[in-house]
Amino acid sequence: MKFVSTRGRAPSLSFADTVLTGLASDGGLYVPESLPQFSREEIAEMAGLDYQELAFRIMWPFVREDLTEDEMRGAIERAYASFRHDAIAPLVQTGHNEWVLELFQGPTLAFKDFALQFLGQLFDLLLKKRGEKVVVLGATSGDTGSAAIEGCRHCENIDIFILHPHNRVSEVQRKQMTTVLSDNVYNIALEGNFDDCQNMVKASFADQSFLPDGRRLVAVNSINWARIMAQIVYYFYAALSLGGPHRPVNFSVPTGNFGDIFAGYLARGMGLPINQLVIATNANDILHRCISDNDHSPMPLVHSLSPSMDIMVSSNFERLLFDLYDRNGSAVAELLADRSAPLKLDEGVLDRARTLFASERVGDERTVEVIRAVFESTEYLLDPHTAIGVEAARRARKSSAEPMVCLATAHPAKFSEAVDKALPGTSVPLPHHMQDLLEREERMQVLPNELSAVHDFISRQFG
C-alpha cells in the first residue's frame, strides 16, 4: 500500500517511510491511496474478538508490506499490555441508547495511549531494522505529550522532545511529562499557546539544519498516519459491542485537532455503518463554526477547563478536505496557502460534509453543569472533555433508536479544577500507579516563544 500527500506534490511512500517521515515534503499530510474495505459479513465475523485480535485484523492491510504477522502481533500485544482494564476500551451506559467509551485505561489515562503505545512499538521495530537513530519532536495541549513520552522512553534509537504551552496544561498533565527522568526525554515549556507549539514543530520539520549529522525528525503528533490508523480500531470495537454492523452506531467526539474523529470517518469508509459523527468543541470552536456557518476564520485562543481542546489550527482537518475536494492536492494546497486568512469551503463541499458531520460548541459553564447532572443521575464521573462530547451528542443526535457512543478521552482525575467546580469537595484519586505523581521530581526547560531558542536547546543536547 502506498501513501500520498494531501497537497499532491510529495512522492508517495510505503507505510514504513510514512511512519518515519510524518509531515510530507510539500507541507501536506500522508493518507493511504485507497482504504481497505470490509464487507458487512466480514465485519460481523469480527464480533467477539478481543481488542488485540481486532486491532490486528483492522490494521494489517495497511502494514502487511513492511511488517511480518509476528512483528505486527507482537507490537500490538506489547502496546496494550499496560492497559488497566482487560477490555482495553470498555463501554459504560449513561442514558437511553447513550454510551461512554472509556479510552483512558492506558498508562497515562488518556485516549492518546491507544495510538502512542503502538507507535512507540512501531518506531522500535522499524528503526532497529534500519539501524537508524531519530529525534521525535512533538507538541501537546496536554495528553499527547505524556502518552508519547511513555511510548518512546524505552526506545534506544529515539531522543524525544515535547513542547507544551507553559502554565496552560493541568498539573497532572504536566507532571505526567516532566517527572519522566529518562536520559532520552526532554520537556520544553513554551511561553505561548498550543498553536505556537504546533507551528514550531511544523517549522522544524521544514528546516532540520539544527540537528546533528545523521539525525532527522520523526512526528508523534496526529500528523503521523500510524496514530490515526490505530484509532480506527476502537470505533469498530465499540460498534461491534453494540450490535454493529447489523445496525448503525453513531459517535460524538470531543476534538480540537480533528484526528480522533477523522479515525471514525475512516472506519465508516472501511465499511462500518455510521450515520452520524458529532464534532464536539469547547470555546475554541473553529471546527463547529466551519461546519455550521462555513466560518473557518482564526480567533484568539481561549484558555478553558478542557485544555486538550484549546486548539485553533486543526491540522487533521486537511485530511478530510482532501477527500471532500475529490483528492485534488492542488486544490487543498491553494485552499490552505494562507492559514491566517479566513477559509471558505465551496457550498457543495460543505453540504457533503454535513451529510455525516454535525457539530456543537459547549462552554465551560455548561461543561460543569453536565459533569454535575450526569453524576447526579448515574453516579458516573465525566472529565470535562467527555462532558462536552455527551452534551454535544444530546443536542445533535438525529435518532434515539441508534446507539450514540461518546468518546471518553481522559480520566477525570487529570482535571480536578473542573470536577471541583461541578462537585465541590469531591476528590478523584489517581490510579494506584500514579498515587505519588504530584510529589515526584520534575525536569523541564521553560523557553521563550522563539524558534531559534528551541532549536538551540535541542542542538545543545547533542553536544
What does this protein structure show overall?
- By secondary structure, the protein is an alpha/beta fold.
- It has 18 helices and 13 strands.
- The chain has helices spanning 15-19, 40-45, 51-63, 69-80, 112-130, 144-152, 171-178, 194-206, 225-241, 259-269, 286-293, 317-324, 329-335, 347-354, 364-378, 384-396, 416-422, 451-460; strands at 3-5, 30-32, 91-95, 98-102, 134-139, 158-165, 185-190, 217-219, 250-254, 277-281, 357-361, 404-408, 445-447.
- The strands form three sheets. Strands 3-4-12-9-10-11 form a six-stranded mixed sheet, sandwiched between helices.
Please give the number of β-strands.
13
Low-confidence region ranges: none
- How much of the sequence is in beta strands? 5-15%
Strand order of the largest sheet: 3-4-12-9-10-11
Look at the helices and sheets and give the structural class: alpha/beta
In whole angstroms, the N-to-C terminal distance is 39 Å
Task: Give the integer mean of the pLDDT values.
Answer: 95
Helix content: 40-55%
Radius of gyration: 21 Å
Largest pleated sheet: 6 strands, mixed
Helix count from the secondary structure assignment: 18
The coarse overall form would be globular
